[in-house]
Amino acid sequence: MKRMALTAAIALLAAPALAGGADDDTLVVNGEIEMTTKADAPDHLEGALDQVISGWHFRSDETQQLQTDDFENQGMIFVDAAYDAWNTVEGTEEKSCASCHDSPEDSMEGVRAVYPKWNEEAGEVRTLAQQINACRTERMGAEPYGYTSGEMANMEALISVQSRGMPMNVAIDGPVRETWEQGKEMYYTRYGQLELACASCHEQNYGNYIRADHLSQGQTNGFPVYRLKNAKLNTTHARFKGCVRDTRAETFQPGSPEFVALELYVASRGNGLSVEAPSVRN
Amino acid sequence: MASGVRPRVKVPRSASAGETITIKTLISHQMESGQRKDSDGNTIPRSIINRFVVDFNGENVLDVKMEPAISTNPYFEFEAKVPESGDFHFTWYDDDGSVYEDTQTIEVS
Which positions are annotated as binding heme c 2 (chain A) (predicted)? Predict the structure, then answer.
């Protein structure tokens, strides 16, 4: 009995080492893009978090390494696919993305880092996905992409790549404030039969296990994310939906005003972290 | 018919004679196993890359037979000793008869 108690005590002592908190590695992509993967928390997180940490730090060395080289990052395959889509003429206006925006390298630099953001003309907060679909329906006369479809994820990745290494800098004041407050309230609201808020896992328990996996802070700087479990790019709202489902709640729909508000708030929690998309996670 | 197939290869541009270099290859391909059914219960026909061959200056370096259990976007990394300058020639064979090729030149000093 005594020996068992002792073993248990040792197991408890050893637990922190196994718990998979953020490691101290540094992320450099292709030997040239130095990523800020830990940053002082933005002011609005005072009292909640001292430091914001990229989900990259919570993954195994093997998974982390995949993101350090574009050849091994399979998310880049989907970026290539989006280059084809970028130059493909679609819709009644007979335009492609390139007709207005030329090359993504020139026109899309820095775009990913500031989304979601206020669209003055539409009088609403828009996510990158909504803006892509607005372009498709209003300017190209084409069918919108499904909000969490592969085509959408690929296009988001192509646009995000142009901002890699730049700090997330989502505005939270001015006209977006109301939406941001709504997102914040959602973040701390418990949902579902399990009565879990976003904060229950991603603020109070990051670094701890959830079943066999490590909880991260749930940052969005790496989205769309290439996941090893499904070998494709995954969008922010698909992830939100999965999380809410896991609380055993009826979920909001991808692209709904609720998830847009939540995306704005969660993105603002990562202000200061580098845009990593497409990142690699398990 | 497989769509969106794109071979990618990474070979160092230069090496010294007799050096062992690392070669990385990846081909985007859905690798449909032939074991799955669609929503109507019909079997989705098998469509995979079934063979991957690498030659250096006409001499075979690698010849891989691939099976349905191999995952989507198959990635191969291997080492090769290069005695002289020349071309690495990569060939992937698709179930549908398509052949995808790539060639990379290496300078050996």
Answer: 198, 201-202, 243
Q: What is the pTM of this model?
A: 0.86
At B11-59, the pLDDT tens digits run 999 999 888 999 999 999 989 999 999 999 999 999 999 999 999 999 9
The yes/no answer on whether domain A28-280 falls in CATH 1.10.760.10 is yes
Is residue B40 a part of any domain in this protein?
Answer: no
Using the beta-carbon criterion (under 8 Å), do B26 and A231 form an inter-chain contact?
Answer: no
Q: How many domains does chain B have?
A: 1
Task: Please report, for chain A, the start and end positions of each structural domain, with discontinuous segments joined by +.
Answer: 28-280
CB contacts of A72 in chain B (<8 Å) are 24, 75
- Give the C-alpha separation, A133 to A128, whole Å: 9
Range of the structural domain that residue B64 is part of: 6-33+47-108
| Chain center to CA of A161 | 13
Distance from CA of B24 to the nearest CA of A (A): 8
In a domain, B14, yes or no: yes
CATH number for the domain spanning B65: value is 2.60.40.10
Return the half-sphere exposure (C-beta side, CA atoms, 13 A cut-off) of residue B99: 5
The DSSP letter of residue A124 is E
User: Do the Cβ atoms of A77 and B73 come within 8 Å?
Assistant: yes
